[in-house]
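YM 10:42: Heat-inducible transcription repressor HrcA sequence, as discussed on the call
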Amino acid sequence: MDRRKQQVLKAVVEDYVDTAEPVGSRTLARKYGLGVSPATIRNEMADLEEMGFLEQPHTSAGRIPSDRGYRFFVDMLMEAVVPPPELVERLRRLYAERVDQVGRLLRQTAQVLSEATDCLALVEAPRVEPVTFRHLQVLPLSERRAVLVLVTDEGLVQQRLVELPEPASEADLQRISAALTRRLAGLTLDRVGHTVLRELYDELAACGALLEVALEALRPSASDDDHPVFVMGTRRLFRQPEFQDLERAQAVLGLVERQELVRDLLGRQGNDELVITIGHENPYPDLYDCSVVSATYRLGGEVAGRIAVLGPKRMHYPRITSLMELLAQLLTEALERSVR
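YM 10:58: structure's back
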């Protein structure tokens, strides 16, 4: 593609992103200082359409970028954008505090992403690996409910609700907590063998039913194994012009409400630090009018999960990619601090 066509394509993408209106040659000549007449620009746009980089909506004389046009823009024409200093400072302050609950940190990240992009934010929880127990405590919530607090060897804190089969005194729960910590510290769940369990049941013979539910709570559930994805910003996404069509909006909503599909979508992004999928590059037809921008965050030097935004193809790619890179870095740093 020659330089003039690149300039015209870049201008079409940028104008359409800003206005959500098909772009005409007179608009480009007036706003973008391309140094050629509207007639010349019109010819270049016709060539770009023939080459598959632009397309013409049926109801308009203007042009909009095709999937191929967006892809060329992202790969070849997009210029880096530095996030505003005030936004960087606000985010650094937000992530500076030590966080003792990873889930809260991930929800915070999803909220920030959605607010800053007006898109749907997807934040994948760290992929679950076998955890080594450091400390376990059963805390009473009511007469028949308690919460099991599990601290891993990496310093991560998990909390699991426990329904008690019988009323339990605080002393009973303290005894169970002490025995669990003493017997299980330094072990992963798959190393808790018959001997350890027998010792626990012998020590806590009077609290056998309570011990049973506590041990059951330690076993990871299907949702734990699948590492849930926090989703925020549905209303923001549906304020975009592309999603004023109710049928299209419902199709996207139906997909993101299914955790297994969202995990599959993020899983297909691989472990590259930053991935952009546009339109028909997405694996599901309901997302053919969307783009997904995702970035990896790390824990212990390894990829732990992905953060992503899902929005219309007409998104501000330079601004969103720079924000994603910044948030992935801040999330990685915050997670590393949380496990020290």
